[in-house]
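Chapter review: from sequence to fold.
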Amino acid sequence: QVQLVESGGGLVQPGGSLRLSCAASGFTFSRYTMSWYRQAPGKERELVATTINTGGSTNYADSVKGRFTITRDNAKNIMYLQMNSLKPEDTAVYYCNAKTRSPVVGPRDYWGQGTQVTVSS
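The token string follows.
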């Protein structure tokens, strides 16, 4: 079956760093747009960062530009989110997403179960 498994979350102090990982299996990873989303308590889920196919094209939410970096290793089927200069407002559950609109396999949209990131002193 298709699986997306997030890891690397935890408790960090403001200004600290953390690296999240998303391990994928059960589909052709390199053909999918991969994204990180997050959802804080009482708020809607928001897009944090996106990387397309080989990783040559990336997009970031304004709130994380200059602090977060999204990368992907297509040989290992793993996507990463390097988070630096963390702020309390970064506290949320972070979700891994895989999406394609390929005319060959049809539209697909997969989600992981999330990993908790808490930024607090």
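Two observations follow directly from the output. The chain has a mean pLDDT of 96. The two ends are 40 Å apart (CA to CA).
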